[in-house]
């Protein structure tokens, strides 16, 4: 009887410990930067359990599998049975993915984007037509600058959309940016017009703030930071255009003063060698985290291995997880090896 009582006590103690861990986790905003090979897929789970997926990665092609299964796996790990909100930031192939495939494998509640595709490219138009049929069936909302994406338990505000930007500073922002005197505004890139229609988001949870501007190019990023900083300081900056140098505006990178910068790159796409010194020189930076080791950048322009979710060699499809508390304290974890670091205290 004593043995049985002891075992019961142990089981009860373990159950209470698991419950306490679950309750603690439920107080956090969890963000998964998913490995989609230099495409885009970021999953948010609020403390209330509501979810939002930002972009759907790649569709299948001759040399690439669709990103769907990696997204579904991350959702499963996050404890989700459905994705409440899907935000497609813009309609490039590495962001629009295969939404029809995605919704066949996990339920999606509502879709948000910047409107319609503006192109004469036949393949892009065909991809968009397939996507548009799904969004009309599920339910669809066009996001404009200043809108909020409805996710209970977090504040997700649109700072860029359809080629337009906020013109008034966010809370705590608006100061003159001295970096604007040092850096010339980059030229526009006509070939990347769809990038500049990207939906850019400020994700806030208490004192925690994460800036994600999708593929907004350097030219328009300048206007968010100059002459006054409209964004203000952030906790995490998910770098534009996967860390490709064409998306890097040093005047914005420095203005946001992010202690953590994330590059959602692929092995051979993004995290450019020219980008590295700009990020490293940013005010307030503590660490740079990457989804992949950048083969193009090489040893001199990559962080230490613990800060890289997928190293050189066979791809393990691992992600970077950010778990934020309302106090502004947050932890970043490498899913490959469990290495984590805590910030904001």
Structure characteristics:
single chain, 345 residues, Metallo-beta-lactamase, Chain A, 23% strand, globular, disordered N terminus
Topology record:
Layout lengths: L1 H25 L2 E5 L8 E4 L5 E4 L13 H10 L4 E6 L5 H4 L2 H7 L1 E7 L8 H17 L1 E3 L5 E2 L5 E7 L2 E2 L34 E6 L2 E5 L5 H8 L10 E3 L11 H7 L3 E4 L11 H6 L6 E6 L15 E3 L9 E5 L5 E5 L5 E4 L2
Parallel strand pairs: 3-4, 4-5, 5-6, 11-12, 12-13, 13-14, 14-15
Antiparallel strand pairs: 1-2, 1-16, 2-3, 7-8, 8-9, 8-10, 10-11, 16-17, 17-18
Explain this structure to me?
It contains 8 helices and 18 strands. With 345 residues, the protein is an alpha/beta fold. It has a single domain, classed as Metallo-beta-lactamase, Chain A. The chain has a 9-stranded mixed sheet with strand order 6-5-4-3-2-1-16-17-18. Strands 7, 8, 9, 10, 11, 12, 13, 14 and 15 form a 9-stranded mixed sheet that branches. Helix 2 (68-77) runs parallel beside helix 4 (99-105) and helix 6 (218-225) packs across helix 7.
């Amino acid at each position: 009887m004593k043995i049985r009582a002891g075992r019961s006590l142990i089981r009860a103690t373990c159950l209470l410990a698991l419950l306490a861990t679950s309750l603690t986790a439920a107080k956090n905003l969890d963000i998964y930067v998913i490995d989609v090979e230099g495409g885009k897929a970021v999953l948010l789970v609020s403390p209330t359990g509501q979810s939002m997926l930002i972009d759907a990665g790649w569709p299948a092609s001759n040399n690439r599998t669709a990103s769907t299964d990696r997204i579904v796996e991350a959702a499963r790990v996050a404890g989700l049975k459905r994705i409440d909100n899907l935000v497609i930031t813009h309609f490039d192939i590495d962001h629009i993915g295969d939404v029809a495939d995605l919704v066949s494998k996990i339920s999606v509640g509502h879709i948000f984007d910047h409107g319609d595709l503006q192109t004469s490219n036949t393949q892009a138009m065909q991809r968009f037509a397939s996507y548009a049929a799904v969004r009309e069936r599920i339910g669809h909302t066009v996001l404009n600058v200043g809108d909020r994406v409805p996710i209970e338990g977090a504040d997700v505000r649109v700072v860029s959309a359809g080629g337009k930007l906020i013109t008034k500073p966010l809370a705590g922002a608006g100061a003159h940016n001295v970096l604007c005197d040092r850096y010339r505004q980059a030229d526009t890139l006509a070939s990347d017009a769809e990038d500049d229609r990207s939906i850019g988001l400020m994700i806030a949870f208490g004192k925690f703030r994460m800036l994600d501007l999708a593929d907004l190019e350097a030219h328009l990023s300048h206007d968010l930071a100059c002459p006054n900083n409209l964004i203000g300081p952030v906790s995490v900056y998910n770098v534009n255009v996967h860390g490709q140098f064409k998306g890097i505006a040093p005047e914005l990178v420095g203005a946001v003063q992010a202690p953590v910068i994330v590059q959602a790159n692929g092995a051979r796409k993004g995290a450019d060698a020219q980008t590295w010194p700009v990020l490293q020189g940013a005010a307030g930076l503590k660490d740079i985290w990457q989804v992949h080791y950048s083969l193009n950048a090489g040893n001199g322009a990559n962080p230490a291995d613990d800060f890289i979710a997928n190293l050189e060699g066979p791809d393990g499809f691992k992600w970077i997880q950010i778990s934020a508390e309302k106090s502004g304290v947050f932890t970043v974890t490498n899913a490959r090896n469990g290495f984590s670091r805590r910030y904001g205290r």
